[in-house]
């Protein structure tokens, strides 16, 4: 990559990491908010659902805005909105104000994925590698963000912690202002972004239901529905696997080893059991998966890589429960699942870019993240239902089935959809 491309990758990877840092710091803060606002877990669940729901469904209008106004101004607005929302959280006097702050976070964060991925797919020649580095930033946020939040809560008041969490977004936004996205865009892509530079926010035209419908028809005509089916299966696997994973890992390791990491009397002791550390490790090794997926996407058609990786995920799901008999085998399968799970992401994103026209790239990623975060959110309900009515063995059989359907849909993409790029 040249210098301009590297700056874009740094900007988007940093922004991506912060989106997921904020996303996953919220569950850590819930343990404090129950007492602080004298409320119930059920009420806070509604507050969080509001924020996460907007995070998912907001991706589609976010994608529309990306195609009309360019990526950079929306990423900067996302960072400013997330910083502002956490500053509002830090001074929230009542539960309704807290709910408003979390809703603002969800709404502003929702535009990031269509904006960041659209920018990378248009501006970087080695697209797969760039998407891999972008994913690494996200994984670091996913793994280290909640851990840092929990550690800060051991030493500081939660209001100071949430105010401090706003600072990194300000820093990344300040860096982003200096990034010249047009230096990496080809002339044709600059024209498609609106006959103006992406950073200036030039528009292609007015946003309307008619323009959205036209761009959607363009996507469907090329077989994008098959791509959408795949990303939905990948989102279901992601959410079904990760939702109850900390508890599952803790239950298994609790029977295999006896380790106490934090004084049990600590109010945050439940955040530091050995299962949660393994959970962080599973998310952290996903960094290698992101890099691997990006490299594969630059060497083979990404949809073919997805067929193989989804097959691996299916096999690993079937091996998970049998591997619980020993510490070494359990750790090996758990970490392998972390690598394979995140290998999917850059391959999936490269596939979306390859099967969508440049002028509707933001919209295509908007639909993609409605599938992954919106429909995929049903994976949490699916996992909870299976664990309640059956158990972990049955849950991982279901996961193997979801991965197999994902492999089939990736095969269908290769055979029936039309490449646009």
Describe the structure.
The structure is a single chain. This protein has 421 residues and is an all-alpha fold. It folds into two domains: 1-180, Growth Hormone, Chain: A, CATH 1.20.1250; 208-420, Growth Hormone, Chain: A (Up-down Bundle), CATH 1.20.1250.20. The chain is built from 19 helices and no strands. It has helices at residues 3-36, 41-57, 59-69, 71-91, 95-109, 112-123, 127-155, 158-177, 187-192, 209-221, 224-243, 245-256, 274-284, 286-297, 302-320, 327-354, 361-374, 378-389, 392-416. Helix 1 (3-36) packs antiparallel against helix 2, helix 11 (224-243) runs antiparallel to helix 19 (392-416) and helix 12 (245-256) crosses helix 13 (274-284). The chain starts with a helix and ends in a 5-residue tail after the last helix.
Average of pLDDT: 85
> What portion of the residues fall into strands of 2 or more residues?
under 5%
- Per DSSP E runs of 2 or more residues, the count of β-strands stands at 0
Assigned CATH superfamily of the largest domain? MFS general substrate transporter like domains
Low-confidence stretches: 187-203
Strand count, sense and barrel status of the largest sheet are: none
Oligomer: single chain
Question: According to CATH, what is the class of the largest domain?
Answer: Mainly Alpha
CATH architectural grouping of the largest domain: Up-down Bundle
Count of the domains: 2
Task: Compute the separation of the termini in Å.
Answer: 20 Å
Radius of gyration: 21 Å
Helix share bin:
over 70%
Would you list the SSEs in sequence order as H and E?
A: HHHHHHHHHHHHHHHHHHH
- CATH fold call of the largest domain: Growth Hormone, Chain: A
The class by helix and strand makeup works out as mainly alpha
Taken from the alpha-carbon principal axes, the silhouette is globular
GO molecular function: transmembrane transporter activity
Subcellular location: Cell membrane
Organism: Halorubrum distributum
Pfam family, one: MFS_1
């Amino acid at each position: 990559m040249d210098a301009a491309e590297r700056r874009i990758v740094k900007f988007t990877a940093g922004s991506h990491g912060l989106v997921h840092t904020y996303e996953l710091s919220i569950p850590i803060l819930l343990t404090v908010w129950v007492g602080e606002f004298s409320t119930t877990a059920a009420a806070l669940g509604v507050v969080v659902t509001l924020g996460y729901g907007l995070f998912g469904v907001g991706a589609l209008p976010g994608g529309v805005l990306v195609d009309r106004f360019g990526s950079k101004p929306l990423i900067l607005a996302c960072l400013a909105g997330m910083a502002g929302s956490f500053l509002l959280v830090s001074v929230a006097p009542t539960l309704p104000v807290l709910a408003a702050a979390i809703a603002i976070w969800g709404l502003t964060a929702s535009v990031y994925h269509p904006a960041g991925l659209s920018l990378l797919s248009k501006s970087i020649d080695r697209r797969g590698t760039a998407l891999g580095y972008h994913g690494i930033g996200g994984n670091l946020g996913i793994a280290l963000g909640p851990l840092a939040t929990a550690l800060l809560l051991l030493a500081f008041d939660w209001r100071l912690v949430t105010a401090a969490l706003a600072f990194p977004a300000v820093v990344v936004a300040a860096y982003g202002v200096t990034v010249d996205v047009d230096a990496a865009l080809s002339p044709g892509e600059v024209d498609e972004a609106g006959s103006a530079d992406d950073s200036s926010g030039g528009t292609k035209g007015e946003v309307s239901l008619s323009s959205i419908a036209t761009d959607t028809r363009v996507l469907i005509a090329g077989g994008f529905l098959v791509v959408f089916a795949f990303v939905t299966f990948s989102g279901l696997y992601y959410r079904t696997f990760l939702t109850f994973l900390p508890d599952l890992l803790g239950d298994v390791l609790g029977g295999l080893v006896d380790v106490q990491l934090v004084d049990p009397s600590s109010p945050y002791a439940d955040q530091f059991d050995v299962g949660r550390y393994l959970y962080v490790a599973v998310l952290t090794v996903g960094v290698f998966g992101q890099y691997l997926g990006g490299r594969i996407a630059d060497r083979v058609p990404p949809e073919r890589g997805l067929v193989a990786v989804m097959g691996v995920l299916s096999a690993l799901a079937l091996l998970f429960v049998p591997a619980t008999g020993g510490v070494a085998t359990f750790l090996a399968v758990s970490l392998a699942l972390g690598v394979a799970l995140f290998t999917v992401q850059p391959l999936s994103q490269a596939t979306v870019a390859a099967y969508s026209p440049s002028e509707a790239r933001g919209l295509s990623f908007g639909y993609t993240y409605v599938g992954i975060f919106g429909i995929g959110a049903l994976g949490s309900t699916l996992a909870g239902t299976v664990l309640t009515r059956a158990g972990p063995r049955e849950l991982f059989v279901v996961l193997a089935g979801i991965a197999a359907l994902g492999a089939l849909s990736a095969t269908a993409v290769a055979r029936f959809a039309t490449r646009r790029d």
